[in-house]
Fold:
Amino acid sequence: MSESFAITPEDIDAAAVRIAGHVLRTPLVPAPRLSELTGATVLVKHENMQATASFKERGAVNKLLSLSEAERGRGVIAMSAGNHAQAVAYHARRLGTPATIVMPETTPLVKVENTRAHGARVVLHGETLSEASQKAHELAGAEKLTFVHPYDDAAVMAGQGTLAREMLADAPDLDTLIIPLGGGGLMAGNAVAAKAIKPGIELIGVEAALYPSFFNTIHKQDKPIGGPTLAEGIAVKTVGQLTLPIIAGLVGDIVLVGEDLIERAVNTYASLQHSLAEGAGAAGLAAMLKEPERYAGRKVGLVLTGGNIDTRLLAAIMVRELERDDRIVAFRLTTSDRPGLLGRIASLLGEEGANILEVSHGRLFLDVPAKGVTLDVTVETRGPTHSRAIEDALAKNGFAPRRILPRGLAEPAR
Structure:
């Protein structure tokens, strides 16, 4: 273990003792359906079970407990628009420490109110996290508050490292850990812990493809950084100064995952593991879905790092996955407009075993005859084979079906 690293295995051991009883020792759960899907033996560490539904509590409470009484009395300040904010606010209130959280003015109201509900003073400033961070440092200096960095802090990193320590205590035969990678605090702490316990273990970090910060730095590349991502918890543009040497020295590979894979992983956690995962929390599973053959036959530990996902967003993701799997299919039908038409189509779809979700008429399209009509029909099916059978039945009955994808018509009329 390099002496240049900001933390040591002993720091993580001390953090484990310090935070015991302050955070939940979350279960490491066998995931047979994820194992079947990926060909590996998969175990999931459920950090979404923490009080604020995120691993961030480990580092936050370790930092708070490592402060002197005078420092805790003056208070702490953090910059965050998400899980770190709630973790610091929650544990600061538990410990009787005043907490100030600086959030960008663009932060969704629900996150602002959740943070206030934990007793923190919330300061809204700037359009970006960078501007909020500047304001937080200004306030820290002016009010003599201790700054609690979301990842580039030795005590925070050591607290996060207790995760791997628990995982390897519960399953010593794990040979791979796949961990989401944003600013690097989680991965750095767990890399130090895991390599101290099991030097041969493979560590794989996962970044959102839109935010390849560590990938660029370590591989000396210049992939573009930025854009709207479902994994906002790891959407970090700048790598940590303390975390980078650890990740460069101990992490075997960094995998980039696209938005489609992140969506699929969120849906897979919900449908197969019956667990809520936010985008960043599902990144490790997304990496396995990207290259299942890479992990076949291995024993893999995943960290479901957080479950703070908006329920409307989750619903949209699940519907989109049904569309990708041909379980929800839309057809545009073109025919002559006559009484009883809708009943005839409904009867035909019923005979084919399709469940009608939505129907809309169109009589004014210029590509439809004056006495004609189009109907856009969305149906629920059993999958691709069933969808093709329904399409064939519609065609045989003269309805000239065309598939409608979310981005538009997929094929010309038959």
The CA atoms of residues 150 and 233 lie 11 Å apart. The mean pLDDT is 91. DSSP finds 18 helices and 15 strands in the chain.
